[in-house]
Amino acid sequence: MNATALLFMGPAALLVILFFFVPVVITLGLSLTDAATATGLSNWKWIGLDNYDQIARGSFTMLIIRNTIFYVLVTLAFNVVVGLGIALLSTHVEAKAGGFFRALWLLPRISPSAVYAIMWVWAAAAPPFGIMNDVLSPVGVAPRDWLNTDPWVIVILVNGFVGASLGMLVFTSAINSIPEDLFRAARVDGASAWQIVRRITLPLIRWPVLFVLVYQTMSLMASYEYILLTTNGGPGLYTTEVWSLWAFHTALSNYYGNLEFGLGAAMAAGLVVIGLVVSFTMLRLFRFDELVSDPRVEIT
Amino acid sequence: MTGTTLPAPRAPFRPQTLIPYAVLVLATLPILVLYVWLTYSSFFPRIEGFRPVGPFTLENWRFLWDPGSVDQLRNKPAIIPLTINTFLFAISTSVVVVLISSMAGYALSRLPFPGRRMFLGGVLLLHSFPSVTLLIATFIVLRQLGLYDRLLGVILVKAAFELPFGVWIMKGFFDTVPWELEMAALVDGASRLRTWWRIVMPLVKPGLLALGILTFVQGWNEFILPFVFMPSGSQQTLSTFVRAILGEGRFVDYGLLTAVGLYYVAPVLVLFVVAQDQLMRVYAGGVKG
Question: Are residues B128 and A282 in contact, defined by beta-carbon separation less than 8 angstroms?
Answer without folding.
Answer: yes
